[in-house]
Here is the input.
Amino acid sequence: MPVIGKRAVRSGSAALLLTAPLLGTAPAAADSGPITFATPAYELRIATDRLAVTTVRAGRTVLATAPGAFRFRIGGDWHIVREATGSTRDGNSLRVTAATDLPGVTVDLRITLRSDRYDLNWNLSGARADALSTAYDLSSAGHWYGHGENSDQTVQPWPLDSGQLVDAGFSPASYQVVAPFWYTSSATGLRAKTNDPMDVRINGGGNGLGEFTVTGERPAASTVFVEDTPAEVYRDHIALVGRPERSDTPYEQYATPLWNSWAQLYGEQTQENVLDWARALAGAGLGGHAVQIEESVIAADFGERFPDLPALSEQLDRLGFDLGMWTGLYMPETAANFSEAVDNGYLLKDPSDPTKPCLFTWWNGRQTGLIDLANPAARQWYTDDLQAQTSELGVAGFKFDTAFFDDRCAPYPGATRVDYVKYGTELADEFDQQGAGLRVAWNAAQDKGFATRTADKPTTFAGLRAAVSANLAVSTIGYPFVETDMIGGSLSYPPPTKEVLARWAQAASLMPLMYASTSPTGVRDATTGEWVGYDRETVDLYRSAIATHERLAPYIWDQVQGAVKTGDPIMRPLFFDFPKDGASYTVADEWMLGPAVLAAPKLDEGTTRDVFVPTGTWRDVTNGKVVRGPVTLRGYAAPLGVTPAFVNLKAEGATKAYRALARTGAER
Here is the structure.
């Protein structure tokens, strides 16, 4: 073994060997061979002929930058980083300098090692870049996960490398629930240390690269985790961003559905229609704890369509529902109090003219501003309005549906994007969110313990599968209390078929929360105006799914308490619990609900499916048989009345979970 800090010759090429403990200073000039920087758990190999970084654990590559990994943009033109020109070591830190294709412009790369991770920062000397981009070879690390929701709401690749994900507006101001954290099946993880907008591309154009681009005003800074399992990487991430201090959602809201009127009524939101819908739900035994109106009280014609909201609140209460309202920071020009907001400076400002509000086109084509929560007066104005709704109109809670900042606008003097997320979450935390929770981007609200609904999805089986993958993605970046947005889908698509609606309800019954809209008693087609009815079996199947979830609620509540203690996700991919089962890394239509329940609902057409059962001894809920894994059950019978689920007999909570789920099987 060579002396620490001295050169070692390997296979005819020179290398700098740094082994733990990393102490002292050992300057060294780069040469044609790689630089090796090591700890007892892993080592880094820095190529010097073209700057690149490879992470090796137990002799196997677990993460590697791509050829030409380091690039930068100046004045619209992209440039490459070339060969390393020198390196110095100081304790646990290594500094590498490298040439670029621009004369006089060099790169300064700094790496600091710790036992289970390393920090990697790089920037330019001799010029100022518009953007810095680091690219990784996806295949070097196996499969990729994390990120959060895809900005394309109709598809959610799982694993990420199985499809394409392009998010040019990846930011704390994203409407999508995202965080700058990615992890891999090789148990490495990447956390970008920035609060500025990024351009993130995972397999963009099918190029096999993970490309992470930041603005050039600051160094490209990241932490790379190196662990034994993906779950350990997730826990490293949570240790940095915070685990839930509590669940913001009470037991009843986990146990019973929340009904939101959007996909049921779309543009036909009136007091009469909402009440008719609620009466039909109650009459069919489709209970829940609240009915939310997907409309804003600031709409110019709201008073005409809802002439007596307190009376509606009382009528819903007699049916067993609390009244909820949609709310958001968006302020369309048609809003009743738009002029008041503009006159008082309550909206975000136009970056090119701070005397004017920042207006942009909203999803419905209207010109819209955004209330400036960093302005104390604006924040109080918005809060006062919500409090008035609860005290005067009988509103029990709110669905907060908004981004807290928009990157097209100018922030309040001295405020950052993350400040806006902070102000928004603090404001929302003052009110009952009725299980609809909050959609929050970045690493700013995991500790609040909000329920998190994923974004709208199409009313198809593809939409259902995307919703499941989105739940897994969001849950495993640190938001453990997840639900799909609206059972049956929305996005102004035609209503779901009977099969899609029933299968979606069955899948949601095995998730932490159920968030519903389309009624199995019937719905109007938003694309044609025609009434679409469902048969009695649809109602019965939906009611059965609600009953299953309510019986499972005590087990789910145990998992909620566990998530508060540990930060571990409740709904999670199979490989979190079974990292040695290779097949678990590509299963996209099953998940673990806590440690005991394997959910394998049918998410597409047909009456059979293959089920992968991981290592362990399991009881099949449908037929009571014991199954020993790992094994793939081919052609498992799953007619419309069957929701495949299995209980790990040796897991904590197994008895409670099986008793709840076995009753479902007995009823069939």
About this structure: Confidence is low (pLDDT under 50) at residues 1-30. The longest helix spans residues 536-566. The CA atoms of residues 375 and 412 lie 7 Å apart. The chain is about 25% helix and 30% strand.
